[in-house]
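Continuing the batch. This is chain 6 of the set; chains 1 through 5 are on the previous pages. Same settings as before, nothing changed between runs. Recording input and output for traceability.
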Amino acid sequence: MQEPWGRALRCTALPARHLFTSRDLRLRDDESEWDAVAGSMGVTRERLLLVRQVHGTDVAVARAGRAGAWDRPQADIIVTDDPEVAIGVRVADCAPVLLFDPVRRVAGAAHAGWRGTAAFASAAAIAALAREFGSRPADLVGAIGPCLGRCCGEVGPEVVDAFVANGGDRAWFTPGRGDRSFLDLERANRDQLERAGLDPARVFSAGLCTKTHRERLHSYRGDGAGAGRLLAAIRVAADRAPDARDCAAAVR
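Output for chain 6:
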């Protein structure tokens, strides 16, 4: 999809206003870029709520009617029932996961790198929606945005050990050279969503590796410490009716 600032990715089956940005924005310190992407979500910059991400599973709750300014808490998951705000997470190889409950009209966003995925951040986001707003997992729709693919997600044995210690599945890894393995970050998060109660037919994924497509997407593995960031944002306000198609890869 084309926005005034550039290309965006949207999942046609996710019935809430949302987007995944592309390399057309860096989203580091340029406030005009943040203003532009907030405008695409139909909110002001102050109503685009983010968190200070630390590769964990802590949850920030942006409840409708809250008082005061948003102080960007330390968390990797954010959930809301407020239609006047958009919530989002930033990534540059990690998996961005968006969740929407069309029954309760609530939404969540999770930042799931390998550490967050090993700690089951996607499942923690579902639990937060149930705990805070009474969502039923079977009612949720989930979308996994671009992330480091199995093709490029080489990790060491300590990563495999961390997953296994937390009850992760060895099937999320394929053997590499020596003691190295390749992590399928997208599959791991999809499996976690489904095991937490989402209908497999309501879980969608972009299928784009950030490093492979770094001419269109930001990748820490591809660009190093100076890499820009992709934003995954969602708003409770309705955007479009769901259909059976997968995520529309408009950044291609």
